[in-house]
Amino acid sequence: MATPATSRDAALGFAPMSASRLLVFGGIALVLGGMLFGDIFAVFVLHQNGGRTGETLLAAAHAAAAQDPESVRNAFTSIGSLLEDRGTKVDAHVHMTDAGYLALLLALVQPYVALPPQRKRRLAQFLVTGGVLLPLGIFLIHYVGLAYSPLRVIGWASVLADSAGALLIVALLGELWGFVRWLRGERTEADKIATEENSWSRRALLGGGTVLVLLGFLYGSWYAAFDLYPHEAQETRILHSLANSAADRDDVGISRAVNQYGGLAAARAVSIAAHSHIIEFGVLAMLLSFVQPYILLSERWKRRWVIILLAGSLTLPIFVLGELKFGLVAGGIADFGGLLVIVALAGMLAGVLRYSGSGDAGIVQGVR
Amino acid sequence: MTRSAKILICGGIALAAFGMLYGLHYAVFIEHQTLDRMGGALADGFVHTAQRRMPEARAAIDAYGWTKYNYVRQVDVHSHWIGLAMLMIVTGAAFERVGFSERWRRWIALALLSGSILFPFGVIVQTATHGGTFASGLAVAGSALVTGALAACAIGFLRQSS
Known about the structure:
The complex is a heterodimer.
Chain A: H1 8-13, H2 19-65, H3 69-109, H4 117-144, H5 156-183, H6 200-226, H7 228-247, H8 251-289, H9 299-326, H10 328-360
Helix pairs in contact in A: 2-3, 2-4, 2-7, 2-8, 2-10, 3-4, 3-8, 4-5, 6-8, 6-9, 7-8, 8-9, 9-10
Chain B: H1 3-50, H2 54-93, H3 102-129, H4 133-161
Helix pairs in contact in B: 1-2, 1-3, 2-3, 3-4
């Protein structure tokens, strides 16, 4: 049995082409796109990039052993390029997902933005457009470089990313202005988000999301207390050992130090990834709890998507941590966890599409 | 909107704005120079090794370590302030569903707000004192406040559900 939102306010707030609808659609789609990109990046780029960085560091150490400063500089330039390749992809993933969170968050606060509907819609369009173009620009930075650029240090891809960032700032300032107007007592009727519903799906997402954030916070505190300082000290120690081995032309020592450096980088990367992913999934679950009234699916299917989302949100960070001990098997399971979240998001997005379609056709109670 | 929810939503918006301004200032005036210094110090360390000037090599690697120590914390402070602010706004929107009295909710909201300010502030003080007890104490106290407030929210949501 379908469970349409029956609140008239909710229906009003989800009118065709309204700001709330754009932000909810755009938000879920951006999170979905960001996660899909992140999964593809993790499978096809991340490990290969890490391997090449290790090989280049080894080459730099061998060049230092051979007393060839020019090759050392060239190797570090290559490491810089590899880090840029990896960094821009991580940033594209993070920025697209975070723009999605921001869109969902703004959908939530639309009742407190006292602006005319067409202006709210324009701000929502700015936000979603900026949320698409910003990660696209960041992704292209490594490939476009300074080609055809009239500037010495900023390429066209950076210009695209910065312009998209400016669009996001304009949208946020507009929303802030609307909020200030609301605080001054101005009110508009449109764009009310239903907050009355208290379904199982909503409660599970809210409670589950808070628990995920709490777990992420506890893990982060534990990492900061027991691992952060030792890791930092270990990095400097390994680099000293690498430099000493290179000066002594000790090939075995060089290989050992580079392996240790790779292991340390992996340990830090998985700890930070586990911490940030579990918290982000928690916030996502909390945000999605507010979208539940706009998902036109049977209660059974809504529950299924909620369970799949929470299961994936827990699986990914736990098995990311397990990668150090269990290698690629754990990595594969972590990627599967990410896929579960993607599938659940796609399912919820389909439900929102059904709700809007039915609402536009006047089927959902209270829409027309 | 209840007073506790207002504390979280208004506090969250203010903290997010502050975190973004801090990030903008850092990105424009400090970050590129720091990254250049960090990459340059590491490369210099191995160039000096190739030239067998080991004291300079060691100094360059140590400089890399210290620069990275500061860089990691500066970036973490920016992202944690904004992340915690977003969490406060989302929690604030659902705060009426936390199954405690408004008086208790206000205490939880205040703990979450003060912890969200203190924890990254303690981390940033660490860059000035390089691991001083006061800075670490601030960060630990802030993170304990956030953890306690989040645990209370989780219990409150569960209480409301049951």
